[in-house]
Design brief:
mainly alpha; 4 helices
Length: about 110
């Protein structure tokens, strides 16, 4: 008889476990990330990479040539992200691929002057 009570108790626990998701209050779905959110996450990642690269260079894990090249690449990507964020904030249309390439060339020429 004790086994019947134990089996009945176990059955009730199993039924409660299976039905619990159906009885919970519905939670609103998370909003899909916006373009701004995606850019902000990417900006944070670039900042993190630059900090790690600076630290690796400081402790001698990265040669100066590699450091300069990798840091320049990350800084360029960071500038592009900030530009895209600014475009979103000002509600301007994003640059076309040709305009973006032209902006990169202008930036490179400015760096050569300094």
């Amino acid at each position: 008889m004790a086994t019947y009570f134990a089996a009945a108790a176990l059955l009730m626990v199993c039924v409660a476990f299976v039905l619990s998701p159906l009885l919970e209050k519905k939670r609103p779905a998370l909003a899909a990330p916006t373009a701004f959110d995606a850019l902000e996450l990417e900006r944070q990642a670039v900042v993190r990479v630059i900090r790690e690269l600076d630290e690796d260079y400081r402790v001698g894990k990265v040669s100066e040539g590699d450091y300069q090249a990798l840091r320049a690449t990350q800084m360029q990507r960071g500038a592009e992200i900030l530009h895209d964020i600014e475009q979103l904030r000002s509600h301007k249309r994003p640059l076309t691929a040709q305009e973006s390439e032209l902006e990169k060339e202008i930036l490179a020429l400015r760096h050569k002057k300094h």
